[in-house]
Automatic annotation (TrEMBL):
Biological classification of the source: Bacteria, Pseudomonadati, Pseudomonadota, Alphaproteobacteria, Sphingomonadales
Native source organism of the sequence: Caenibius tardaugens NBRC 16725
Sorted UniProt keywords: Oxidoreductase
NCBIfam families in alphabetical order: F420_Rv2161c
Coiled-coil zones: none
Protein name per UniProt: Putative oxidoreductase
Domain of life assignment: Bacteria
Keyword Metal-binding annotated: no
An MF annotation (GO) of this entry: oxidoreductase activity, acting on paired donors, with incorporation or reduction of molecular oxygen
Length: 289
């Protein structure tokens, strides 16, 4: 089992240094969360809380995930980095494909693109993208990016995107894993049919296992069960090595952790974050390898 350090709600300027600490301490990956702009008043409720309120306070810092990947590629040597999650259908597939291919070339292909379809109609409007077609457009975007990453002339004739032969180089230096986030039926199907992995929400371990089993059955139905598949999970009720190993037996390959929430209360300094990264590595990671 591998461990991914969450930088959710971390000041952007601190991320490169805590990534270095994580790399030195045996963490496998760093994750970053995604919001472009947060409206003062929501017109669509946040779907992952009972009251529809956001989990974070206003004025929280959110890095541009792809820019931060480039920065981490320069600051680190071995740790991988992923988006948690990147709202793909808010963007343009050509620009995303170009950015990921560039990151691949400067990082020795250490990036994983973890995508979701998003929930905020407000942000889609701000970026000029249609909210209601986001799921079907996301599926086409995945196909388009994989075509572009071949580096050859490619064309596409879908319902939402059409273009004649184009090439986009550089191509990535290796396979670009696409992990799919979400807990709805369509999200699980997208992970099974198109993804190289699945990202859970913050949820009970039993729900995570149930989703893994659903995805496994769907992958078998479409003949993809022979392909490698990762699961990055955040169980809300399991944190000890024995419990994490049981999740590994069910197919979880990566656990997301925010260790300073375990060791400190309230706001934390950079030094406290670095200390907690090391302590978690000693207390948990060392016993799950």
């Amino acid at each position: 089992m591998k461990f991914a350090l969450s930088t959710f709600m971390t000041p952007v300027a601190e991320i490169p240094e805590i990534a270095l600490t994580a790399e030195d301490s045996g963490w496998a990956m760093v994750t970053m969360s995604d919001h472009v702009a947060n409206p003062q008043t929501l017109t669509t409720p946040y779907p992952y809380t009972a009251d529809g309120a956001r989990r974070w306070p206003e004025f929280t810092e959110w890095p541009d995930q792809l820019v931060m990947m480039g920065a981490l590629a320069a600051a680190t040597k071995t740790i991988r980095f992923t988006t948690n999650a990147f709202v793909l259908p808010m963007r343009n597939p050509f620009q995303v494909a170009k950015a990921i291919a560039t990151i691949s070339n400067v990082s020795n292909n250490r990036q994983v693109l973890t995508i979701g379809v998003g929930w905020s109609k407000d942000e889609f409007g701000l970026l000029g993208q249609d909210f209601h077609t986001r799921g079907k457009r996301c599926d086409e975007m995945i196909e388009i990016m994989r075509l572009l990453w071949t580096g050859d002339y490619v064309s596409y004739d879908g319902k939402y995107y059409q273009f004649d032969k184009v090439e986009a180089n550089p191509r990535p230096t290796g396979h670009v894993p696409i992990w799919v986030g979400g807990i709805s039926g369509p999200a699980l199907r997208r992970a099974a049919h198109l993804g190289d992995g699945w990202l859970s929400d913050l949820q009970p371990a039993a729900d995570i296992v149930d989703s893994i089993r659903q995805i496994r059955a769907m992958r078998k139905d479409v003949g993809r069960d022979h392909l490698p598949f990762d699961v990055m999970a955040t169980p809300m009720d399991v944190g000890d090595p024995d419990g994490l190993r049981r999740l590994e037996d069910e197919g979880v390959t990566h656990i997301i952790g925010t260790p300073w929430l375990m060791y400190y209360e309230g706001p934390t300094t950079l030094e406290q974050k670095k200390d907690s990264i090391k302590r978690y590595a000693d207390d948990i990671i060392a016993h799950c390898s």
